[in-house]
Amino acid sequence: MRRGLGRGRVLVGLGAGIAIIGCFLPWTYVMGDPGLPSTTENAFAGAGILTFLAAVALLAVILLPYASASGRSVLDRWPSYVLAGGLMLVGTVVQVLQLLPGGALKLMPPLDVLGLYLGIIGTAIVAWGVAEIVSESSAERRAEGPRHMTTFKPRGRK
Asked: What is the CATH number of domain 6-144?
């Protein structure tokens, strides 16, 4: 039986899709001198590739249960989402930090660096979705009740 998508997985899928689109659009824009062309770079020019790979991995984890015959996947658990979401966050932050020293981080006009904005927004939505998945998982564990450890009685020595 397939698990319902739920709010967290929908948010993760939406954020990953937005971030993937943003990875192909310009993250930096440098205007050339008169007579020289302007230069743009997308997420694949630096650590933003990690953002792309993590977003693809998140979409794969969401879709895996639908590709299996049983409707379940071992990877469709909260640790997978936390790991991939964390990698996505690291990739986005490092990419932005790489743009700082050379003065390549330009935030205005927004259409010139639309990929940067979409990458950041997508990563934020993924983080929100991962938090929802973790909270859903902890609520399920609380609903199950406490887990009792099996205690072993020592055998009497003869």
From this structure: 1.20.140
